[in-house]
Write a structure and sequence with these properties.
256 residues, mainly beta, SH3 type barrels, Fumarylacetoacetate hydrolase, domain 2, 2 domains, 12-stranded mixed sheet, 13% helix, globular, hydrolase
Length: 256
């Protein structure tokens, strides 16, 4: 089941997207908190503006260096346990929203990632229990001000600017995430081409590890790390992250 959040110019609403990604059947309420019920109204994806499929009410949890080759390109070995950081929910943007490159940074990078959306409150879950707390999966771009990441010595500012966490285009609720191809393209040129099978710590381990530190709430998102091939974006370029069986998340980058 694919769940989109969108607007036709009025208040945001939710809908079920068909398998072709063309049509949306409106549902009532927020599917994170209420039973999915169709309203009978339908539209097409082309007729609406897709929004970030979830705005985490609490937090976005990032995972650093979860692919060995990416850890090496960053100049070190992968950590022995998941490396976590927090991103404010104000960083979340949706499909086609511009990523605004801040004047404080001279190098802003893309990082295509699989994102997990938590479906119910949980704490101290095991990897075996983790599957039962997942609402679904979406595509993320963990945008990073690389120069500030290095100069600050920690990652909050570098990854937390407004618009630096695009999510979309929708949430896929029924998916085997053990081996999904992930591509990141800049103006159509492939820059990252990896698979979730190369994660050092799998999705269930990441959820369990995060829940040992934080109570996870419905709508929280966990970004699961990026494959090798990170690089800078120039103003005016468009970045697309595509994950098999989910879809394509595209955003223009600009300076104001």
């Amino acid at each position: 089941m694919r769940i989109a959040r969108y607007t036709t110019g009025e208040d945001p609403t939710y809908g079920l997207v068909d398998g072709a990604g063309d049509k949306i059947a409106e549902i009532s309420g927020d599917p994170l908190y209420s039973k999915i019920e169709l309203t009978g109204r339908t539209t097409t994806v082309d007729e609406v503006r897709l929004l970030a499929p979830v705005i985490p009410r609490s937090k976005v949890i990032g995972i650093g260096k979860n692919y060995a080759e990416h850890a090496r390109e960053m100049g070190g070995e992968a950590p022995t346990e998941p490396l976590m950081f927090l991103v404010p929910n104000t960083a979340v943007a949706g499909p086609d929203d511009p990523v605004v490159m801040p004047p404080q940074s001279q190098r802003v990078d893309y990082e295509g990632e699989l994102a997990v959306v938590i479906g119910r409150m949980c704490k101290d879950v095991t990897p075996q229990e983790a599957r039962q707390v997942v609402f679904g999966y979406t595509v993320a771009n963990d945008v990073t001000a690389r120069d500030l990441q290095k100069s600050d010595g920690q990652w909050s500012r570098a990854k937390g600017f407004d618009t630096f966490c695009p999510l979309g285009p929708w949430i896929e609720t029924d998916l085997d995430v053990s081996d999904l191809r992930l591509q990141t393209r800049v103006d159509g040129e492939v820059r990252q081409d990896g698979t979730t099978a190369d994660m050092i710590h799998d999705v269930w381990t990441l959820i369990s590890h995060a829940s040992q530190a934080f109570t996870l709430l419905p709508g929280d998102a966990i970004l699961t790390g990026t494959p090798e091939g990170i690089g800078p974006v120039e103003p005016g370029q468009r970045v697309e992250v595509e994950i098999d069986q989910i879809g394509v998340l595209g955003n223009p980058f600009l300076r104001r």
